[in-house]
């Protein structure tokens, strides 16, 4: 049974994958332990438990973070997305599909973290964030080409002890290409509809 709130325990409500969960936690409980031990969301993995391997990567308000270094109480009020929340029903997220199609894993232990990290990384890149290997970091230069070096650098916080890096890089590149294609199609559709609407006015 969950302990009652005291000076060292608090009742918090976490929003995970669109669902709200109210639980009482020790203030020292990490978000990783709350997800795995209290909410049974075991897709998020514990590797090093000290912020070095990336296995526990989740999204907080769309930004990637390592859940082992976040306190659960500090995640209240944020939108938490775990690997369990990426698919839309039976439809896998493009990053999940790319990892599957291109064998971006061996044992699979690092894979949930790799995929969550990739999802946010692709958005960071599309928003024009430079990395340590970006040649032209001027904002007006826009996003650099998403080369293998860029992907490796941007994904360097996610370790894979199986060494599946070659396939992981390919899978991330595929997911980024799908995202770019989807965005371009949505833009074309929006432009066409706007033109038609204006023409009809
Ligand atoms: S378990 Fe969190 S970074 Fe390794
Ligand atoms: S697939 Fe085994 S640790 Fe990455």
From TrEMBL:
Metal-binding listed as a keyword: yes
Pfam families, sorted: Fer2 (PF00111), Fer2_2 (PF01799)
CDD domains: fer2
Keywords: Iron, Metal-binding, Oxidoreductase
Ranges where the 2Fe-2S ferredoxin-type domain occurs: 10-86
Top-level division of the source organism's lineage: Bacteria
Coiled coil: none
Stored InterPro entries: 2Fe-2S-bd (IPR002888), 2Fe-2S-bd_dom_sf (IPR036884), 2Fe-2S_ferredoxin-like_sf (IPR036010), 2Fe-2S_ferredoxin-type (IPR001041), 2Fe2S_fd_BS (IPR006058), Aldehyde_Oxdr_Iron-Sulfur (IPR052914), Beta-grasp_dom_sf (IPR012675)
Record keyword Iron present: yes
Protein name per Swiss-Prot or TrEMBL: Oxidoreductase
